[in-house]
Structures
1.
Amino acid sequence: MDIEKAVADGNLPAVVSAIRETLQIVLRTPVNIAVVGDSGNGMSSFINALRNTGHEGEDSAPVGVAKTTQTRASCLSPYFPNVVLWDLPGTGCATDSLENYLMEMQFSRYDFFIIIASEQFSVSHVMLAKTIEDMRKKFYIVWTKLDVDLSTSAFTEEQLHQTITENILENLQKKQVCEPPIFLVSSLEPFLHDFPKLRDMLRTDLIKNRCHDLLQKLSHTCEMVINDKVTSLQKKITTQSFQDACGISDADDLGVCLNAYQSFFGVDDESLWQVAQRMGRIFTDYMNILKSRDVQGLSKRDWKMTCLTCAVMKAFLSLLSYIPWLGDYIICYFRGMKHRLLLAIVAEDTKTILRKVLEDSIIPQ
């Protein structure tokens, strides 16, 4: 409601404050990550590496050559606040079919998945990926034990990386599964290979995962408020009371009108500067995406505005000014067209600015 009111008032700095307050609540919401794969692929070792916990730690996940994880186990990581990592038994460990496994592991409760593989990318890996994609949830594929592969292969790390990645993608394409992020790591050496990149991407994607629905909802809310505002303004845009309220001294001066509309929606220079300051961005990050920065540029970019402000139209309206009553009526009609078009362009700019503010708030620079 605070965001709706701020948008309706054309107070973008207040929108930024309200969005940040909302995000603080959302970011405290726990995210459940399921780590899953075939038995013996090293899921528990990977979780320990992700948490930067040694295998000998009191709260580390049990690891070994045999099937060490028989039931679901959850743990936390200091690297990922408000994230619950779930160490699931290997596929086929608890039940005889993948369908029963998915039901027993309660796959629908998880927000994010990491599929662990090593030695081979099996049919069960592909089916897991297909199932997760059908659930419209994000997942990574992590190839563990890269240190073992390097010690037994004649390939360089780059060649091995390419070979394994191509094999995984080829198997996924057979089931028309999208190309997910793929990482090759050694759980025993979490600072080497793709592990640092995995951690960085996971942090960013967890923020996106938490905030995706919020971003869509807030974006829709802001657009609805702006549309309602435009509809209301268009009904009285040519009235003297409206022009007085907006500080429009000359309704035929589009530069004056443009500045008035920008102030009315909160996308004037001063407001955008305040937004940039609060967002920790530079002023041009927001200013450069405006289509309505100035009338001259707008007349060149928008064909409708070009037609309404060209020399021929100006000469035509000038001639009409000598015709009593009818001329005034036609001039007023075209003036209203220009104002409504200008209003619509500024409104679209406001939507664009708000979408960027939302994205920049959710995904910090």
2.
Amino acid sequence: MKNSVFSQKIYPFLLAAYRWYLRTPERALDEAYQAALKIKEIENKHFNGNPIDCESAIYSSSVMDYFESDLKKLIKNARMRLTEFKASRWFSDESHQKAADKADIEYPSRSSILEKLKFIDQVISKYTTFNLETTSSSLVNQASTTSIDSAIAQPISPNLPAQNLDKKPQRKADTTGILPRSILSTINRLQVELDPNSEQDVVKSFRQNQKRTIISIRFILLLIIVPLLTHQLSKFLVVGPLVDRLRSSETVQVFLNFEMEEEALEQLQRFEERIKFENLISNAPPLSNEEAETKMKEKAREVAEEFSKESANAIKNVFADIFSVGAFIWLLLISNSSIVVLKDFFDHIVYGLSDSAKAFIIILFTDVFVGFHSPHGWEVVLEGISHHWGLPANRDFIFLFIATFPVILDTIFKYWIFRYLNRISPSAVATYRNMNE
């Protein structure tokens, strides 16, 4: 009976899954090829065979945003499928080919694969990271500007030469000049006011700043929401059922550390003292030893069940946190352009603040994390992390961490103030020193 069930139900499923695995290179290449064909179709149908230019004036901004969104999805899909194709080809060997022959799987010819790869490269090579992320490229190159007016004075052309694409954006911390920036910004503002096309430049710059803000806020929300969702979903859908199944009632360990055990004993002692106190203040007859022992056993079972759940929850948190950190790292790896825009966004916000605001934020941040009262906060944070993972709070490690990490952090702050802020905004440093004293 078991053999018939295996041959009728399980074996066909395993065989189909194995064939699906063997067809991974062919399937990934076909999906990348189809994405390249769709891009080529959009070029031929809407742009007369030319590359999709998101700064083109042929269509309205809404239509160009639509084409830009489709282009990003297709390019991303093609690149991911090419990566899958390369990885699957890397794992394949002679045994892989023999298994494919036994499963009656015919791979496309080498010439067909080379033609598809050549076509995909021809289509994708026209859209580098610079051309794809139009908002990112135009915004990153504005990182050295101090305001919208200075950005208008040096407009960014969408068709930059190829040799300029590899240059890193020059940020405010790297710019130095002979004349003060206030004089240069005044000259630039006069040039903008005398320029007859200044209105169009203002609108274009405003749209670029708006897109930069939207991309940055969206990316920040993703960095917060994606790890949290991954933590909760993995905890309740994957890690939770596995831990509950492995922690059977017979072999379960109630306490993960001695602190949990001491806390449970304290609860039992308080319960015993409470029932004695309630019996003393009431007019009821005194409890016998058997009745008191029965109540203590019931309370002990409740406490054991409570700490068993807490121990299981701590184990779930460890693995769920691993999934969450993995999702966070994966999000950073696939969002290079968004990270560049986010850096530019923070650069404009931080260096656009007034001197007193900069000094206030620096003092607030340093006092919270490296100030006189910061050790108490670090102690609470470390104890909370230990409790979250079900670990005993090691006092020696906590004291060693408090004695070293805030000092290192304070050194980094001082170096940043001396190396960068003192050169970019000396008045802010002077204000900071006066407020700090």
